[in-house]
């Protein structure tokens, strides 16, 4: 691949706007096309960002020979179709998180990308953040000893009206896929896939989770993670990792940190900071471009096996709390360790 990586943007919502804004600050990144389900939306987006081509359907973007990689920014329920069609058209794909609605769909995408030798990555920008990478490195190097507990939360105050997409089961609404994916991904970055999953939830009348608490466990080490997500409460948005020899605390905004503090037995607290814009999405875009230029089909920072493991955990949480999306009505899962309250 040439030094310039040519991007196509699929969907025109808020996250697509943020990503495109950051993408256009990167050397060697060129946004050549955008697609939406309506030509009006695609054209307005193209005009705003100076993108040469706008398509009123997905097919035009997938057929565009000048597009190297497609950024999928649709709602969750469309990730499987959009990313799958892009891969079938021979395009590399960066797909927003959560990767799909469920692990079965995620496995289908990963199998497709691997069978075709095409790049696929979940847009878990937290994993590409320089400070999160530094934190994970410190933990791997034993700075706090053996991990004992992880705590993380992500909640928004709301309230969201009944017709909001976050309340709509048909598009994968609820706190878990939009917000809970962050604390779960943070815990699994450090500990891998859990052996046990317990959950408690407050469900909306529509049947999506408004407030969910999770307790994950790892049998071999005895580590546990206490995580939560909410569409009904402005939670602290903090994270903490406690080990046998110390602790790391991340203040509000743990998934886009400006700093974190390392506490070690017998040492003064040590603060780690970064000059980078913590809200920037360019780090994940830069990782995609690095992989494409080297011919890699998976990112070591956001490995596909890790994304699959997170999707399995999210599935397990939904099993426990009894949340199903309409597309899954033919799928039966055991519902165990469930504590569910209806709003």
> Overall mean pLDDT score?
94
The dominant shape is: globular
Tell me the series of helices and strands, N- to C-terminal.
EHEHEHEHEHEHHEHEEEEEEEHHE
How many helix segments? 10
Q: How much beta, percentage-wise?
A: 15-25%
How are the strands of the biggest sheet laid out side by side? Answer: 14-13-12-11-7-10-9-8-15
Number of strands: 15
Structure explained in plain terms:
The chain has 343 residues and is α/β, with parallel strands linked by helices. The chain has helices at 14-23, 39-49, 58-63, 79-88, 103-116, 125-128, 130-140, 175-191, 282-294, 304-321; strands at residues 5-10, 29-35, 53-55, 69-72, 92-95, 120-122, 147-155, 196-203, 209-217, 224-230, 239-243, 246-250, 259-264, 270-273, 338-342. Helix 2 (39-49) links the parallel strand 2 and strand 3 (53-55). It is globular. The model is unreliable at 331-342 (pLDDT under 50).
How are the SSEs placed, and which strands pair?
Elements: E1 5-10, H1 14-23, E2 29-35, H2 39-49, E3 53-55, H3 58-63, E4 69-72, H4 79-88, E5 92-95, H5 103-116, E6 120-122, H6 125-128, H7 130-140, E7 147-155, H8 175-191, E8 196-203, E9 209-217, E10 224-230, E11 239-243, E12 246-250, E13 259-264, E14 270-273, H9 282-294, H10 304-321, E15 338-342
Parallel strand pairs: 1-2, 1-4, 2-3, 4-5, 5-6, 7-10, 8-15
Antiparallel strand pairs: 7-11, 8-9, 9-10, 11-12, 12-13, 13-14
Helix pairs in contact: 4-5, 5-10, 8-10
């Amino acid at each position: 691949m040439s030094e310039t990586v040519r991007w196509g943007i699929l969907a025109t919502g808020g996250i697509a706007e943020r990503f495109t804004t950051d993408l256009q600050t990167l050397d060697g990144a060129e946004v050549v096309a955008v697609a939406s389900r309506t030509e009006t939306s695609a054209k307005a987006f193209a005009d705003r960002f100076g993108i040469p081509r706008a398509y009123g359907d997905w097919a035009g973007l997938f057929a565009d020979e000048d597009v190297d990689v497609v950024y999928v920014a649709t709602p969750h329920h469309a990730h499987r179709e959009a990313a799958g069609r892009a891969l079938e058209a021979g395009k590399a794909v960066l797909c927003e998180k959560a990767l799909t609605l469920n692990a079965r769909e995620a496995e289908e995408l990963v199998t497709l990308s691997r069978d075709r030798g095409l790049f696929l990555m979940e847009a878990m920008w937290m994993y590409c953040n320089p400070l999160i990478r530094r934190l994970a490195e410190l933990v791997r190097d034993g700075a706090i000893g053996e991990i004992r507990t992880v705590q993380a939360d992500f909640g928004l105050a709301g309230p969201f009206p009944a017709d909001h997409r976050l309340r709509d089961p048909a598009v994968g609404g609820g706190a878990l896929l939009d917000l809970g994916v962050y604390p779960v991904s943070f815990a699994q970055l450090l500990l891998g896939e859990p052996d046990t999953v317990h959950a408690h939830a407050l469900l909306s009348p529509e049947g999506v989770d408004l407030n969910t608490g999770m307790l994950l466990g790892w049998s071999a080490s005895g580590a546990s993670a206490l995580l939560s997500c909410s569409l009904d409460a402005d939670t602290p948005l903090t994270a903490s990792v406690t080990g046998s020899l110390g602790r790391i605390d991340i203040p509000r905004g743990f998934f886009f940190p400006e700093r974190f503090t390392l506490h070690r037995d017998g040492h003064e607290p040590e603060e780690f900071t970064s000059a980078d814009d913590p809200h920037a999405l360019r780090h994940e875009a830069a990782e995609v471009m690095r992989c494409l230029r080297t011919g890699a089909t998976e990112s070591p920072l956001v490995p596909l096996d890790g994304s699959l493991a997170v999707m399995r955990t999210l599935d397990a949480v939904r099993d426990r709390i009894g949340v199903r999306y309409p597309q899954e009505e033919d799928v039966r899962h055991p519902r165990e360790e469930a504590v569910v309250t209806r709003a």
